[in-house]
Structure formats: C-alpha cells, structure tokens
Amino acid sequence: MADVHEHGCMRLYVAQKLDYSDLQFVKPYMNSDIDACKKVCLGNCSCTALFFENSTGNCFLFDHIGGLKHAELVATVMVIAGLLYVGFYYYHKQKRLLECAQENLEEDNFLDSFSGMPVRYTYHELCKATKNFSKRFGQGRFGSVYLGVMPDGTQLSVKN
C-alpha cells in the first residue's frame, strides 16, 4: 500500500506477514508496535519502506529495497568487463593457435611429399613403441634416449 505524506514523500508499507530473509543482517531501527513504526517512517523522507516483525516488535526502516548502490554497481560492471576481456583474450589466443597449427600442418604435408624423407611418427605412436618411455637406452646431450619397437617390428631409438 502506498501513501503520500504531506511533504510529498512517497511511502511504501509492506504487509506484516511477509518474510524478508535479509532482515537477519540488518539492525532494527527500534522496538515498538506497528503504529509507532509507521509514524517514524512517515516522519523521515528518506524512508521508502518498513518491515515490522510482530513476533519481536522489531521495526526496520529502509531508504532503498533491492537496489544497487553506486559502489556495488561499479564493482559489478568492472567484474563483467574483466570477464569479457579474459573471454575475448582466450578466444583470440585459441584462434591464433589454430591458425598456427594449420600453417604447420601445411608445412608438414609439403615436407612429406619429398621422396627420401624420414618417416614421421606422432607422439602417441612413440609412447606406444617405447612403452611410455620405459626402456632407457642411453643418455644424450639434451635428454635420455629410449629403445622402442613399432607394430611392424621396426626397432627405433627416441630422444625425449
């Protein structure tokens, strides 16, 4: 129910049987009866709503309900802007990586077209051949060398 006070202030009275869960985080303005609570709200132009608890006699006055304060609004906008920035950055990074992979694939296909080029294996094929690099065969200058066997019986050594 809305009521206009003689000073032109709009008042909103909330029904007595509503349950407003946020009241547990707010200190009551006063402890009284509903009429005294209404009178105090009517006398204060910044009071836009009141909540009254019949069980306790607590009177809660509010100058806004459910609205965002300026600082909360700025923080929300900043968080959203930050998330959008991170999303666009990640999207463009992934796009560049895919373009790079496509260029490398074209180069690989070009090199495979020459006769006499060594056979190229995927990392997965090498892991299988060396049983996850379990048979260490030796030590090179830049890493260990592992012995492996391909499915066709070809033996190979792999530096990892």
What do you see in this structure?
Helices cover 37% and strands 22% of the residues. The protein has 160 residues and is of the alpha+beta class. Strands 1-2-4-5-3 form a five-stranded mixed beta sheet, covered by helices on one side. Strands 6-7-8 form a three-stranded antiparallel beta sheet, with helices on one face. β6 (136-140) and β7 form a beta hairpin. The chain is rod-shaped and about 100 Å long. The mean pLDDT is 76.
Gross morphology is rod-shaped
Described by strand count, sense and barrel closure, the largest sheet is: 5 strands, mixed
Secondary-structure class: alpha+beta
Report strand order across the widest sheet: 1-2-4-5-3
**Share of residues in helices:** 25-40%
How much is the radius of gyration in Å? 37 Å
Mean pLDDT across the residues is 76
Topology, number of strands: 8
* CA distance, first residue to last residue: 77 Å
| Count of discrete alpha- or pi-helical segments spanning 4 or more residues | 3
**What is the string of SSEs from the N terminus onward?**
EEEHEEHHEEE
Range of strand content: 15-25%
Which stretches are low in confidence, meaning pLDDT under 50 for 5 or more residues running?
Answer: none
Summary tags:
three-stranded antiparallel β-sheet, five-stranded mixed β-sheet, rod-shaped, 160 residues, 22% strand, 3 helices, alpha+beta, 8 strands
